[in-house]
Specification:
heterotetramer; A: 337 residues; alpha/beta; 7-stranded mixed β-sheet; 5-stranded mixed β-sheet; B: 375 residues; two-stranded antiparallel sheet; 7 strands; 38% helix; globular; binds thiamine diphosphate; binds magnesium ion
Chain lengths: 337, 375, 337, 375
């Protein structure tokens, strides 16, 4: 099986879907001729033509609105928002329109759109090229939110997102586009090559939305993570030698609640890890759900390891980023009870 | 007033946004090159649809006062726009409505009973009680889903039109927006996309002079016309007497043919007047002279079409009065049927429907919460 | 002391601040000559002049942007977004600009703006006149979020918000503008007159941001609520006769964490009540914070009583709205342990 | 090309968006009514500021290649716009910049050392390491805080100008936006507010032909000019040769006087060319001919001003070469000073600063989290 990095896997998913379904169209800022600032749509215009993959004006609200209108006609638009930080001008379109169209029209119209966007930090992108806005979308009824952590899932989940008849936010952890970064930034960068999840089939396959992946099985604590943080969690687990169940959530809407509760009932402990700032972040929802469903199994408080409640600070990236050291501390703390 | 060929480019029609296209003169004669030369049957159909729309609006406004519905919005004085456009466009075309174009649904034959059932939020509400009154959706009648938030569907019209072109269909999109709502950024983004992709779309600004309590000046009307916005994008812009059924029809046909033959988008400002209050929650006497509606110089669209038919010898006062009563009775009877199903609070759709269509398939949250409610 | 309803109290706060501070300007859709669709700015233009209180174009993004620019110059704009549902077109301005300006410019510029907006349901306003978006703002570092539950607090908190040099979201529970609605919609509407918190001083006074109000003292359970839900909680507490501490949070950023933890450590139980849909709502953050800080004091799982995870359904308003019955159930459940 | 009085209304200048205002002809002569008639000293000051800006850009671009900074963006070829405008406007005026107008800071005398320290994110970074390189903020130099997100500060310029008018001050605001970013809804909302409130603001569209890999057509340039956007609002729109220092100056003075004397906003399109790649992350050879910059018909703004000074007899090649070396050395020495403080990763501001200025006063979350980090 060919080895792909995350960019190649995403590109392959788009290529496959353009080939399979004439209703799939791809557009966004610089995605056409240029192939996207992160090269995810590289060569797709050349191969599938100008009407299948094209550039748009710089107006995220307009990009989403256009996609919704196309979706209402019957197409399956896959749009790219160049950085998740720049999705906010399109927020009203996503919340007031895409998320609500099916419900308010009683199923007469719907928006089968996929919104791809690189998110998260770790690339010295500063305040507006590093944020993790997943929590504000998770709160919006009618939107699905997917976050892959490796090339295999990236391709399989993106294909599922495109085939889904609901609007899907597909956040791509840009820090792991080229390698499985585990937060140890002082170490040399690792490529995906050789990683088991970098073995990606050439053709069509899909990974279902709403199913978490058990990345590591253990008895002492349950770790919940997604995106880049899955790799950070693994590093911390190794470092501490604590025997943890590590769940890669893969999608936060729909959420694999069964897998989460089953694991916490088994381990009696839970640590949640995400890059976004803590207050009001998705970790709060996860903590509440676990507490509600596993209260009598819990041996120690559920912990959240997250970014700080500050804007993303350029020069302090590694002080802000919740790396293995902070995660290891939390793992040791929960083991004290 | 000249009638330019449909393949004009904007520089050739840069004067049009500063004039006004009219066909019906003071005496009810159709004059000038923009006369669409419609048959008497078509004119009669349009007249009737406008009268039904107005009678229905009046009835529902009263129904609100009687506590039968939570909310209502009238289109009084603006009926010519939605009715003429619904008739001038094709079945495959799609309009992206505001809450003030119910005339489209009436002209297209959408059952008044559906409207009334939604307005009463009763067991037969076609949208299952999920939407307020007047926020209709009727795909089969070329009527896109309305929502309370303003301006945000113009971009959907552009995308819908682009999809039609992508598929090689010749369906076109028509988007409505009130003059006040043109201030929203979404309006500009839609026009930019329409321009760049040459989308088969007609962008209609219904300038009824008011945005709740604010005069059209709040959206910039004191500096230029809304039709002139088109020049900023290099698009043809027309300024049309929106109370002139024939002018509305002709301008719409012209723009539709441009769109259908891939000559791109057209922006049309319909100059009209909001004859009633903004909604049942509004009291216009607080901010405008009580007699302003009567003083409106461009007249009433129903009267003007009636007078035109009379001038044509196709119509007279007595028949008009008879039709008025007939329409009144028709509306009354249908509303009675809806009332029999139930009005606000007395009847509502099955509760399970609250939990459907959030997604195509419910996830565990919906399933658990439905159980929590004992369903 | 004069008795005021919430609209009069808010109007009085604006009137007082226009009188005290020439830098205060008020604007928004229909707020000028007309006095606002809910009459909160009634007569202010007449009394203070066209340049102090005026109408704006219908463009929420433009309204917020204009306020930020004025704030950067040195004014204290107080803007009205006609309904909280319509704040979303201004979301990017609030998050990417207002919330971040002070931090990114190292204090050279800041946005001392107050964003007033009626929010919440209970008035048959349907999908786009009923939503409660507080959670998405609480997650944004750099924004404060205030929600009053009665006329006295409304005036005192609004004055504090206007005087605050940080951007403040001020959400007004529209259902209780005219009376203390407790969710028992079948009963006759109550006016504010006669309610102790409807006694409001004419002149200047303030209620600090970040201090919860103990509305009722009890030993068995802690109830956390804000806005309309404070009254719903009271009704449920009476109905069940359960001896509860009821905290009216009043602001969710800053949050009165001391009051919350002290109370839960005392009672060992906690029920959180909000109108917004549950998933990713602010209740999740509250639940997580309580669990992290009071874990060893908890006798039973922390409960959340909220709106359902559907869009706000017009005809089903009272099935969606988390009224006293649902709240009472939760109170009884937590008392089982 | 006529020079209209500053109290013109838009209908009187509806032709200007379709022409181009230029003063420097092929031979370096200043011709026409728009010649601002500047003294040789002023011209020299401008020439030097443009040369410093360019030398600094080149140095920093190399610094990135050497791993000394995370990111950089050059303004090569566009220096005349920011330099001439910084000089033509007053100390009390405020510009709302893009990331491509560093010439403003150079012309206003902002210490290059501050720029370099921010670019290296070192201990002396004036913004305490919170911002990327090039996202400057310098209130005392009339330079508003830049952020990565596009278009969203034009409305701040309008509000700032309105506040100045409210206070009775005569400070005006100048907002910059790239031609690609004019597609954002925020641009339209800012123009609508500026129009309705007659704000003392100059809206500058720097049309450098490219938006990363997209040609200006992606924002609508194939249908009309960006200056023509002004007509849509009833505002005067000027289209100016942005590589002509004198024309930029004259157009800016004209618009500034209009704004200062309460004649309202002006939109100016500066026609220029992005001489370098979009940023250090970009490779323009992927999407445009390598020799396009050389082929650019409107020339290089530095060369054109140099030639003009030579024609005036105020300057010659040898002195120009000497100045070039002098500027090079000045930049080199200052950058060396900054390198001595430290470059990316080797030096950074005190960590406590990460937690300051989130709010005016930290709340418990900040205080607890600072402790968690052991501060
Ligand atoms: C995004 C948004 N902002 C504000 C409102 C509140 N609102 C409802 S109707 C209206 C006035 C609209 O005026 P106009 O666009 O002229 O349409 P008209 O009512 O005159 O047909 C306003 C401000 C809204 N519904 N949506
Ligand atoms: C809201 C937003 N969307 C997208 C981007 C990504 N982006 C950064 S620069 C740029 C191109 C801007 O082009 P233009 O406005 O012409 O300015 P120029 O770079 O040519 O000076 C884009 C798309 C962004 N920074 N902000
Ligand atoms: Mg209107
Ligand atoms: Mg550009």
């Amino acid at each position: 099986m060919p080895s792909m990095n995350m960019i190649q896997a995403l590109n392959s998913a788009l290529d496959v879907m353009l080939g399979r379904d004439p209703d799939v169209v791809i557009f966004g800022e610089d995605v056409g001729y240029f192939g996207g600032v992160f090269r995810v749509t590289d060569k797709l215009q050349e191969k599938h033509g100008l009407t299948r993959c094209f550039d748009t004006p710089i107006a995220e609200g307009g990009i989403v609105a256009t996609a919704i209108g196309m979706g209402a006609y019957g197409l399956r638009p896959v749009i790219e928002i160049q950085f998740a930080d720049y999705i906010l001008p399109g927020f009203d379109q996503l919340v007031s329109e895409a998320a609500r169209l099916r419900y308010r029209s009683r199923g007469q119209f719907w928006a089968p759109i996929t919104v791809r966007s690189p998110y998260g930090g770790g690339i010295f992108g500063g305040q507006t090229h590093s944020q993790s806005p997943e929590a504000i979308f998770a709160h919006v009824t009618g939107l699905k939110t997917v976050i892959p952590s490796n090339p295999y899932d990236a391709k399989g989940l993106l294909i599922s997102a495109i085939e889904c008849d609901d609007p899907v936010l597909f956040f791509e952890p840009k820090r792991i586009y080229n390698g499985p970064f585990d937060g140890r930034h002082e170490r040399q960068v690792q490529p995906w090559a050789g990683h088991p999840n970098a073995e990606v089939p050439e053709g069509y396959f899909s990974v279902p939305l709403g199913k978490a992946a058990l990345m590591r099985e253990g008895a002492e604590v349950t770790v919940l993570a997604y995106g880049t943080m899955v790799h950070v969690a693994l590093a911390a687990i190794e470092e501490t030698g604590i025997d943890a169940d590590l769940l890669d959530l893969r999608s936060i809407v729909p959420l694999d609640i069964e897998a989460i509760t089953a694991s916490v009932k088994k381990t009696g402990r839970c640590v949640i890890l995400h890059e976004a700032s803590r207050y009001g972040g998705f970790g709060g929802e996860l903590s509440a759900l676990v507490q509600e469903r596993c209260f009598f199994h819990l041996k120690s408080p559920i912990e959240r390891v997250t970014g700080w409640d500050t804007p993303y600070p350029h020069a302090f990236e590694w002080d802000y980023f919740p790396g293995p050291a902070r995660m290891a501390k939390a793992l040791r703390r929960v083991m004290e009870n | 007033m000249r009638l330019p060929p449909i393949d004009v480019v904007e520089p050739d029609v840069r004067d049009l946004p500063y004039t006004m296209i009219r066909t019906l003169d003071e005496d009810g004669q159709a004059v000038g090159k923009w006369d669409p030369k419609l048959s008497a049957d078509v004119l009669m159909k349009g007249l009737r649809a406008m009268m039904v729309t107005r009678a229905f609006d009046d009835r529902m406004f009263r129904a609100h006062r009687q506590g039968k519905t939570s909310f209502y919005m009238k289109s009084t004085g603006e009926e010519a726009i939605s009715v003429a456009q619904a008739m001038a466009l094709r079945a495959g075309d799609m309009c992206f409505p505001t809450y003030r174009v119910q005339g489209w649904l009436v002209a297209r034959g959408y059952p008044l009973l559906n409207l009334a059932n939604q307005i009463f939020s009763n067991a037969e509400d076609p949208l299952a009680g999920r939407q307020m009154p007047v926020m209709y959706s009727a795909r089969d009648y070329g009527f896109y889903s309305i929502s309370g938030n303003l301006g945000s569907r113009m971009g959907h019209a552009v995308g819908w039109g682009m999809a039609s072109a992508y598929r090689g269909d010749d369906n076109i999109a028509l988007g409505y927006i009130g003059e006040g709502s043109t201030a929203e950024g979404a309006f500009h983004e839609a026009l930019t996309f329409a321009t760049v992709y040459r989308a088969p779309v007609i962008v209609c600004v219904t300038n009824n002079q008011w945005a709740i309590s604010s005069y059209s000046g709040i959206a910039g009307a004191e500096s230029t016309t809304f039709a002139a916005r088109a020049i900023g994008y290099g698009l043809p812009g027309l300024r049309v007497d929106g109370n002139d059924f024939l002018a509305v029809w002709a301008a719409t046909e012209w723009a539709a043919e441009r769109a259908r033959t891939n000559h791109g988008p057209t922006l049309i400002e319909f100059f009209t007047y909001r004859g009633a209050g903004h909604s049942t929650s509004d009291d216009p006497s607080k901010y405008r002279p009580a007699d302003e509606p009567q003083k409106w110089p461009l007249g009433d669209p129903v009267d003007r079409l009636r007078d035109h038919l009379i001038v044509l010898g196709e119509w007279d006062e007595t028949r008009h009065e008879k039709l008025k009563q007939e329409v009144f009775a028709e509306v009354r009877d249908i509303v009675k049927q809806a009332e029999a199903v139930g009005t606000l609070g007395q009847s509502k759709p099955p509760l399970e429907l609250m939990f459907e269509d959030v997604f195509k398939e419910p996830d565990w949250r919906i399933i658990e919460q439905r159980k929590e409610l004992g369903l």
